[in-house]
Each structure stands twice: as structure tokens, then as C-alpha cells.
Amino acid sequence: MDLALGSLHVQTHQPDHTLLMAELDKDRLRRWLSLMSLIRAFEEKAEDLFSRGLVHGTMHLSIGQEAVAVGASSALREGDYLLNHHRGHGHCLAWGSDVDLMMAEFLGKETGYCRGRGGSMHIANVEKNNLGANGIVGGGLPISVGVGLSIKMRGTDQVCLTIFGDGAANTGAFNESLNMASIWDLPVVYLCENNQYAMSMPAQKAFKIPTISLRAAAYGMPGVTVDGNDVLAVYDAVRQAAQRARRGEGPTLVEAITYRWRGHSKSDRQLYRTRDEIKEWQARDPIRRLARLLDMEDDELDEVARQARARIEEAVAFANASPEPDVSTILEGVYA
Amino acid sequence: MREITYVEAVREALSQKMSQDPTVFLIGEDLGVYGGAFGATAGLIQQFGDLRVIDTPISEAGIVGACIGAALTGFRPVGEIQFMDFVTLSMEQLVLQAAKIRFMFGGKARVPFVLRMPAGSGTGAAAQHSESLENWFVHVPGLKVVMPSTPYDVKGLLIASIEDDNPVIFVEHKLLYKVKGPVPEEMYRVPLGKSHVVRPGRDVTIVATSIMVQRSLQAAEQLAKEGIEAEIVDPRTLRPLDDEPILDSVVKTGKVLIVHEAVKMSGFGAEVAARIAESAAFDYLEAPIRRLAGLEIPIPYNRTLEYHAVPQVENIVAEARALAQLKV
User: What is the ipTM score, two decimals?
Assistant: First the structure.
């Protein structure tokens, strides 16, 4: 498939859908669809809670990007590591996180993953090797080098999945990290979730090259661009990258081209793009695309969405019933 | 007791800790065959191999990120920043990641690593290789800041820092590397967060850090010939700061001079002065608190200018004498 990015045309890696559909049984793909729907329902509820003034902080919604989160996580296994960025609710849910604890964290409750200290941008679950979302663009990239080194020194076949955006690919941390991971053949999968805007800066203005994955060549690692709204394509590319990492052959840069349907954060008036552009990408809805692959009828898909929303309502109820952090504990957790 | 140099004590601490704990490794620029810019890691690559003495490209943010990632997943890395000046290139990883991860994640993660770095002027290395930036880190909750002034302390504090479960900024001074002193051969710890009295005295308290402890000791010898007995307190750990020995000393002498190499404005001395002013020791002061610190300039190249940019023995003698002789 050719993706038009402004004046640039990008040739993407084409997975063999028939082969993948044959290999992945339908039940598994249905679970992916449910997960993508759960992510969307979480984000829509987050937006709803925010618009009703029930959320203290900001949020960065990943509506439209669900295939990246689910495709990538599904290509990994138990015991692998995740480092992600602050548009990260989807990655976290796809990693198998508890929706209740996530919603509680989003609402700043003591029962949340980070006891309400982290909030939307810093959800982590170190016990499950989810090493956290990052509020700093590119902030997780150098940390991935250490996780990769740690895996290599322990001699396990774990992999570190590091997800970052197109904006992060222009930071100095990107250069240092990809180079170090490559020279040491570290088992890291660098997944650039290119949603085409670093806040308001379009990728086509921020890069002089047609695809970010081209940069892989500069570090001596494979680079591949996939359609990030095609969950099978993301799965296939990340799986191949993970296999290479497990074989000790080093990192890969995977670029998934996708699009965020909402603004950057709560303050965004979206003056930098057109309604038509948003509509065009909404027509490429990753959830509907997977439903079509599964030959699902609209009412079936509606039922999946209804179940997802119901689960999210339970999470909101859990969070609402949870206690606020006690001010007497404010100093806890700075030092070990 | 056997005497070795400060840099030998650093190397011995690293070597002994690496032998004892397989999760300790070194990472930084030119640590291996080169042995570190100041020789602190000389010979360690032969002893432990290149998987535990890791040479990196010129990537300071990458070095600190590598420490964080490995620390989060079970290791106790010791990173080296070749000159403290270059730590500015890794500030995001140190201040926004390492220092905050534990708190941000609700106290459910640990980031145990040490970041060693040589600081200070006196080598003719000029403005970008002579910084004393310790107080930048003292201002960051989540970090610990250690600044050893003797071969004995540097070994014991480094071992204790590696064993600490938090990110520790470990500031060595270039001019101290060749200073010799008694150091036990076996492993021992100097606990973090413990100030101590280096030299007892009754007339004036000198609170000094790093190389200024050595200079204050020399100053105290000269002052003693004049009948002035200076008491020297070395905080050793700047964050967390154990201020009790400082306050006790001020109560005893009633006069205090604070000496450090970093510039005076908002320097560590300001914190020490404020602690004294806020405490019961304030009532015992017989003279205003004095600070002696680096001038408000970058470190100049010219030998004479460089010498005058930071406190020297004669400046400490003059300040302490003036304080001691002040009649109240």
C-alpha cells in the first residue's frame, strides 16, 4: 500500500494477509479486536471524564492508533520489557494491564498503578516488566539501551519493545540510543509510532526523508515501514524484529504510520490540519479494518464495542470508589 | 596503615565490589584499554572483561540511560562521566528520569546506580573541563550527592554508594586523585548521609567540601601556629545532608566559615548557612556566617587567574583568622 504523506509517497512493507490469517486463528484475532475496542473505549471515557471536569491533569489520546499498540504487544511474549511514551494508554492496556488500576491512576487514586503519583503520562507496572510511559519525548530511548544491556548480560532471550513517536526521532537521544543498541547488538525493538504530528509540527516538515525507517541504515540496523492502521502488518513487522533480537542479531527500527484522531492534548485547537484530513484517516479506522478481515457484521462489531464500554464503566466505578492518596504519605517513595 | 592515592582507592573499591557482586558493571567513555581519562579504571578490563567494563561512544545521555535501564532490571551499574562538565549532556536522563522514576511509579521501582565524575579546577583545563556543578543535583529530590575528600572516604563511600538503592552522583576532584592517605585493604563502608568532624578545634568552625577539606586542613595548621584552633566539618554527603555535626560545632565555636569551590551564589554554602540560621545554633553565633567560594566567573585558562578563581589555603587562613579574631 502507498501512503501519501503530504507530497511524499511511502512504500510500506506488505505482509501476506492470507498467510497471517491462516496462521492466527480467528479467536485470537477476535481478542485483538476486543482489545482495540477496549483501548478506544478507555480513551473515549477519558475524554468524556475530562470534558465533564472530572480529571485533574491532561491526557494524550491514542484514538485511531489502536492497531499499533495491539499488533506490537501481540508479537511479544511474557517476560519481555516495554518502554513507551505519554500517548500510552493503549500500549499499557495491550500489555495486559488491569483496566481498573489504570483508570484509578488516571483519576489520581491511591489504588492506581502508581498510587496516583504518576497519572496518565507515567503509568508503569515494573512487576510485569512494563517500565513505564514517559512524559519526555524520547526519554525512554536511552533507558532501552540499559534494558537491552541487562538482557544481554543475563543471557536470556527477552526483548525490549521501545515505543516512541515521530517527534522523538528528531531528538539527540534517538541518535545516541539507536547507535549504542546497534553496536552492541542489543535485543531492542524500536517502534516509531509515526502519527504524523509532533504536537503541531507535521512530520513532512520535520524530516527531509520520506520515511523515518530510512534512518535505520545510519545505525546499521534493518528499518521497515508498515501501515500502522493494519494490525496484522504491525504484528508481522514487530514479530520479525523480535525474532531477530532473540537470535542475538540486534535491534530493528520499525516505523508504523498511523494517525491520531484527536488533538495532541486537552489544549489543542488543531489549527495545523484540516477536517478533511482527519476524516480521510477516520475512513482507515484500524478497528473497522480488522472487523472486515474477520467478516464481522456491524451489529457484531457494535456488540464488541458495547462490551468494551461496559468494562470501562466498571473501571470508572472502581476508580471512583477508591480512596484519594492520604496527604500524610506525600513524602513516600522518593528514596528506596 | 597502608597508604594509597585517592584514584587508587577509587579503583580498589570498584574492583572489590565487582569481584563480590556480579551485578556491578562499569560503563563510560575510554574506561577499558585507556583506563579512564584519570586512570580510575586502569586494569579493570583485563580483570573483568569488556562485558563488565563497557566502553561507550561519546553519548552521555546514553550512558546514564544505560545505567537507568540496567538498574531497573536488576543491575547496579557504575557509570562514569569523563568530566563533570559533560554531565550537562545527560541532565534529562538524570533529573527527569533517574531521580523521578521511583516516586512517579508510586514507590514501586528502584534505580540503584552510581554516576562517578571528576570535578574541579586547577589543571589548566579551562572553562568547559573544570566545573563544580554538585549543587545542581543537591536541588533534586530522588538523587543522592556524595563528595569524598580523602582516599579513605572515597573507597568507603563508593562501596556504600554502589550498595545504595538510589541514583548517587559521586563527585571526585581531579586534584585529589594524587593525594595519598591511609586506606584499609579490606572492603568497608563509609555510610551515606553522615557528616563528620575531620579536625577538632574550639575557635572557629570550617565547613568544607571535597578539595576544600584538604585546603582547610592546611589552613588549620597555619592557624594553630597563631593559636587559633579551627574545627573542620566535612559533610561528605551533600544530599541527604546530616547537619547535626555542623550545628553542634557552631554551638561550640560560635563562628563559622563555609568553603567550597563552586560559585558562591546559590551554592551549597547557602544551604549550610540557612540550616544554621534556621536552627537553635543561630543563638550561639558570635559573628555573621561567612562563605568562601568560587568567583562568579567561568574557570579561566591562565594559571594565575585560575588560581585566584577558587578559594586557596591563604584565603581560608585569612577568612578564618578574621572571624576568630572578631571581638563580640
Answer: 0.95
